[in-house]
């Protein structure tokens, strides 16, 4: 079973045994495009120890659990900054949903 593009990013947040095996090209892609700083904060993220599906709920699904986890995360601001800079359109990043991040971007302009 393959994940969506947005969910694939979560691979850096979860243990490999929790996900289907990805082709070697995916690891190469991650190594080429993820900076050391990105990898460092992602490794410290609380979502690394939780179910990635909570952060990518189905349309209309609850975001409560993911947001609760984000509230106690030491890298919440780095995560949100990453999502805003990379225009992440899916999932909960830095405690905010896609809709909340769009609103935040509009207010910043």
Automatic annotation (TrEMBL):
Keyword Cell inner membrane on this protein? Answer: no
Which stretches does the entry tag as region Disordered?
Answer: 1-21
- Any Pfam family matching the protein: Whib
Give the InterPro entries listed for this entry. 4FE4S_WBL (IPR034768), Whib (IPR003482)
Listed A to Z, the keywords are: 4Fe-4S, Cytoplasm, Disulfide bond, DNA-binding, Iron, Iron-sulfur, Metal-binding, Transcription, Transcription regulation
Any one GO cellular component localisation term in the record: cytoplasm
- The protein's role, per its UniProt record: Acts as a transcriptional regulator. Probably redox-responsive. The apo- but not holo-form probably binds DNA.
Query: Which organism is this protein's natural source?
Result: Allosaccharopolyspora coralli
Please list the residue ranges annotated as the 4Fe-4S Wbl-type domain.
Answer: 46-103
The signal peptide annotation in the UniProt record is none
For activity, the cofactor(s) needed are: [4Fe-4S] cluster
User: What does the note accompanying the cofactor annotation read?
Assistant: Binds 1 [4Fe-4S] cluster per subunit. Following nitrosylation of the [4Fe-4S] cluster binds 1 [4Fe-8(NO)] cluster per subunit.
Keyword 4Fe-4S part of the UniProt annotation: yes
Q: Identify the gene encoding this protein.
A: whiB
Q: What is this protein called?
A: Transcriptional regulator WhiB
Q: Which family does it belong to?
A: Belongs to the WhiB family.
UniProt PTM comment? The Fe-S cluster can be nitrosylated by nitric oxide (NO). Upon Fe-S cluster removal intramolecular disulfide bonds are formed.
Subcellular localization(s) per the UniProt record? Cytoplasm
Q: What is the lineage of its organism?
A: Bacteria, Bacillati, Actinomycetota, Actinomycetes, Pseudonocardiales
Sites where the protein binds [4Fe-4S] cluster:
47, 70, 73, 79
Molecular function GO terms recorded:
4 iron, 4 sulfur cluster binding; dinitrosyl-iron complex binding; DNA binding; metal ion binding; protein-disulfide reductase [NAD(P)H] activity
Give the GO biological process terms.
cell redox homeostasis; negative regulation of DNA-templated transcription
């Amino acid at each position: 079973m393959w994940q969506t593009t947005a969910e694939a990013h979560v691979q850096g947040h979860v243990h490999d045994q929790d996900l289907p095996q990805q082709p070697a090209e995916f690891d190469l892609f991650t190594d080429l495009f993820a900076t050391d700083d990105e990898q460092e904060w992602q490794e410290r993220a609380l979502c690394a120890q939780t179910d990635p599906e909570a952060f990518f709920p189905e349309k209309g699904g609850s975001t409560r659990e993911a947001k609760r986890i984000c509230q106690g995360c030491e890298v919440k601001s780095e995560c949100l900054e990453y999502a805003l800079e990379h225009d992440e359109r899916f999932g909960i990043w830095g405690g905010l949903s896609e809709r909340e991040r769009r609103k935040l971007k509009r207010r910043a302009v």
